[in-house]
Specification:
Layout (H helix, E strand, L loop, with lengths): L1 H18 L1 H10 L7 E4 L4 H4 L6 H10 L4 E4 L12 H10 L3 E7 L18 H14 L4 E4 L7 H20 L3 E5 L7 E2 L2 E2 H7 L6 E6 H6 L4 H7 L6 E4 L1 E2 L6 E2 L8 H6 L8 E4 L8 H13 L3
Parallel strand pairs: 1-2, 1-12, 2-3, 3-4, 4-5, 5-8, 8-9, 9-12
Antiparallel strand pairs: 6-7, 10-11
Helix pairs in contact: 6-7
Length: 300
């Protein structure tokens, strides 16, 4: 009888809880099973990938070996895709047991317009269609602007116009477009920040943000508050930490970024993919340390 009463009591509480939106939301917000498995922005290992005679496939196998399943790439010393054509690089990624999710590319160049186009890396202003087509050829689902010139309001407006075009082209290829922030996106210029300007002047279904948790924190922002302000605009994250003393990137969990708070409030962000990033890492040991910390402290 006691067991039956306990069962009925527990069942009643569960049934009641399922009818209460607040109860369901609180549990879904903290459900670690819903967090995307950590991927890697391979800029983290630029020292390995851009070394003379680097064995790219061997590095990809090392990345898979530390428990990473998804990759985001960036322009390297040999250009995009580390000196390979998109399809060739995509095959290397797949053969290593990884998924290639997206690629970083520059937006509005900081070099003067008069500079030789041959001297500039490919960028969204000059090469947007080629960049989207290349990413599509490689099977990527995301084109991400790594940074753009936003030092004046005019540059912010031109950057936003470029993003509108990139978002439209990506959508036509069944892809998506996002903008990766640093600290400068939060600085006010003539009363407005590039971060707010881009998000309020673009289609929320075509232009997204890849929120760099470390640089947002360094700019005095609470990522959880940004999720509430712009719900579902942050499907991509850079999971990066900053040393408490130097402010430089360090392995995740050893610095000042409050990841537990951010992940616990992730529901409104719309997050789909998270990429560990540590600028200047010298070996695979640093991202491996980040993976271990996340699995022990966030994904437990």
């Amino acid at each position: 009888m006691a067991n039956r009463r306990s069962f009925l009591k527990t069942s009643g509480v569960m049934a009641l809880g399922s009818m209460l939106p607040g109860w369901a939301l609180a549990n879904s917000m903290t459900s670690r099973a819903n967090y995307p498995s950590p991927g890697l922005q391979v800029y983290t290992l630029s020292a390995l990938l851009n070394a003379p005679g680097a064995d790219i496939y061997a590095v990809l196998k090392q990345i898979a070996g530390i428990g990473i399943k998804e990759l985001e790439t960036a322009t390297g010393g040999n250009g995009l895709y580390y000196g390979h054509k998109p399809k060739v690089f995509a095959k290397m990624v797949n053969d290593a047991g990884l998924k290639w999710i997206g690629n970083h590319i520059g937006g509005l160049p900081r070099t003067p317009s008069a500079a030789s186009s041959a001297a500039r890396p490919r960028n969204l202003r000059d090469n947007v269609r080629e960049i989207v087509d290349d990413a599509a050829e490689g099977g990527c689902k995301w084109v991400v602007c790594s940074s753009s010139s936003i030092s004046t309001l005019d540059e912010i407006k031109r950057t936003t116009e470029i993003f509108v075009v990139a978002g439209d082209l990506a959508a036509k290829n069944d892809m998506k477009f996002a903008y990766h922030n640093h600290q400068s996106e939060f600085h006010k210029i003539e009363g407005v920040s590039a971060f707010d300007y881009v998000l309020t002047n673009t289609d929320k279904k075509k232009v997204f943000m890849e929120l760099d948790l470390a640089w947002a924190t360094a700019a005095g922002q609470d990522p959880a508050a940004l999720f509430k302000k712009y719900p579902n605009r942050f499907p991509l994250w850079h999971v990066k930490d900053l040393d408490k003393t130097t402010g430089r990137p360090c392995p995740v969990g050893t610095g000042k970024v409050d990841f537990k708070h951010i992940f616990a409030n992730s529901k409104l962000s719309g997050v789909e993919h998270t990429f560990i990033e540590q600028d200047g890492a010298k070996t695979i040991d640093d991202p491996a340390s980040s993976v271990r910390w996340l699995k022990s402290n966030i994904y437990i």
